[in-house]
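Quick one:
INPUT:
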């Protein structure tokens, strides 16, 4: 199955009041039917904490990254759905013009970088802004939107859902040249899907743009909405994300389970088949969780069996060691101890050397990666036949 992505890009020209009333509640009602995954807003003009709180209150299903500035003409934000994305890290500039956030897409289990930029409207300020901003971006955006305040060539698209022509790398390079966009982050120039700035109901200037990485997503179209409190059109982009196959390969490092790698592959093949046959995302996730639980149950059962077998072998070895000591057969006792320590080394258990012997106790399972794997525990004991038990560390 594949996943879609819905993105809103809009210069709101301030989120205070308009002739129609407070803008934030109006904006929330405008966006409600579209259920966007990502919201990119420029010129937010947010200057107080209570304005941030008002925005968050109207968009409770989103986490929001604000970048505000004392200058009323600035301010950008990125909002992303709580149910889908987890915040990893972010980057802001000091002028309230750039916000970048790295997210973990929990549906696809991959990372995604969304960025929004609001360029200066004064022409001679733009080249330096673009150069400094692009040169200092640490995170390479998967999606870069905003108002770049620079025009390309006149367009005559009709209002509504008129499809845009497919534009490739050369067209994007031309646009970047027209905008004096000098930068070293070449990954941004792979592909572009554009939004636009409207003047007098005829699209003449191309100020708002959305760049996307075509190796990650494919544009499915654009919708244009002339909303009341900005001279920019709000634009909704939809994308199809490249399908990502998850949970294909596991590296099982635990020595107790390493020999069972063939059966792991059988379980995973069955899981992937169930997921691929699912008719919806919910069913796919449900199938995977059910299958994962079966794997976990199997390993818990298998782990306990192997733990008991290892405990039995250790008990036999310890009895042999004690018998050798009691019979004053120190050569045999030394050989048993040496072999036992070598066996512990093979089980990734380190021992502090000396006149001591390790006694291992095997306990519960711990989660490692996406499977519950068995991990050994070590219990120091006070005395065994007069020998002090040393410390041990489980790796």
């Amino acid at each position: 199955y594949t996943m879609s992505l819905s993105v809103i890009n809009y210069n709101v020209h301030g989120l205070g009041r308009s002739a129609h009333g407070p803008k934030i509640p109006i904006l929330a009602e405008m966006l409600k039917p579209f259920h966007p995954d990502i919201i990119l807003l420029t010129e937010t003009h947010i200057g107080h904490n209570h304005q941030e709180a008002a925005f968050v209150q109207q968009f409770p299903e989103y986490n929001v990254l604000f970048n505000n500035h004392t200058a009323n003409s600035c301010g950008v934000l990125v909002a992303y759905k709580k149910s889908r994305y987890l915040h990893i890290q972010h980057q802001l500039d000091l002028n309230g013009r750039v916000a970048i956030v790295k997210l973990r897409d929990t549906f696809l289990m991959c990372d995604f970088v969304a960025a929004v930029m609001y360029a200066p409207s004064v022409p001679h300020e733009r080249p330096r802004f673009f150069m400094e901003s692009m040169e200092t971006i640490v995170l390479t955006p998967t999606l870069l939107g905003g108002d770049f305040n620079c025009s390309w060539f006149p367009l005559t698209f009709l209002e509504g859902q008129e499809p845009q022509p497919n534009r490739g790398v050369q067209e994007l390079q031309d646009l970047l040249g027209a905008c004096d966009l000098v930068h070293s982050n070449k990954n941004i120039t792979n592909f572009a899907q554009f939004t636009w700035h409207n003047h007098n109901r005829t699209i003449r200037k191309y100020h708002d743009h959305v760049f996307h990485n075509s190796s990650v997503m494919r544009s499915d179209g654009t919708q244009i909405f002339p909303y009341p409190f900005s001279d920019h059109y709000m634009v909704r982009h939809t994308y199809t994300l490249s399908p990502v196959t998850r949970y294909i390969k596991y590296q099982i490092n635990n020595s107790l389970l390493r020999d069972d790698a063939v059966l792991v592959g059988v379980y995973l093949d069955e899981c992937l088949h169930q997921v691929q046959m699912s008719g919806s995302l919910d069913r796919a996730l449900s199938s995977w969780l059910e299958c994962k639980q079966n794997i976990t149950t199997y390993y818990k059962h298998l782990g306990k069996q192997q733990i008991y077998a290892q405990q039995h072998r250790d008990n036999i070895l310890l009895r042999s060691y004690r018998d050798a000591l009691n019979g004053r057969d120190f050569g045999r006792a030394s050989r048993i101890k040496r072999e036992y320590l070598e066996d512990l080394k093979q089980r990734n258990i380190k021992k502090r050397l000396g006149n001591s012997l390790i006694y291992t106790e095997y306990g519960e399972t711990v989660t490692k990666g996406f499977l519950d794997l068995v991990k050994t525990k070590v219990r120091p004991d006070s005395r065994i036949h007069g020998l002090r038990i040393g410390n041990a560390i489980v790796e």
